[in-house]
Design goal:
about 130 residues, mainly alpha, Rossmann fold, 3-stranded antiparallel sheet
Length: about 130
């Protein structure tokens, strides 16, 4: 049986670049029709899409996320210089895909245990609806 992870991540890339609806692009203030090759390269400013980096750069980001996980590099992922947050959305989706679907392999397992946050009275009071 094939893993659903590659299918999910491919769909996520297509949704983030809005290749599924093929929205037009804005270039130098003019609206242009959708062009597949330009969108793959990330050389347009989509009107609706969540990222403008294109499929090729999302593929590179995908490789980097998997490499970091495979090497068990400690730390967090961050996107700086955010346009609409598409790269951060993809990183979160990639992390969820790799760490939540069975079987989770040992090479992607976290080296340090995650401690749950203990709620305090302030948190519980703030979340309790008023009567």
């Amino acid at each position: 049986m094939n893993s659903p992870q590659p299918l999910y991540l491919d769909l996520l890339k297509r949704c983030l670049t809005n290749m599924i609806y093929q929205d037009p692009a804005t270039l130098r203030g003019e609206q242009r029709p959708f062009e597949l090759g330009i969108r793959i390269e990330g050389r347009d400013w989509p009107v609706v899409a969540h990222t403008m980096i294109g499929i090729k750069r999302l593929d590179a980001l995908h490789f980097c996320v998997e490499d970091v996980l495979e090497r068990a590099v400690p730390g967090d992922f961050i996107e700086t210089g955010v346009w609409r947050g598409g790269a951060a959305i993809f990183m979160r989706g990639a992390l969820k895909a790799v760490t939540s679907w069975p079987p989770v392999t040992a090479r992607f397992a976290r080296r340090r245990p995650v401690r749950p946050v203990e709620p305090n009275r302030t948190t519980l009071t703030a979340l309790t609806p008023a009567k």
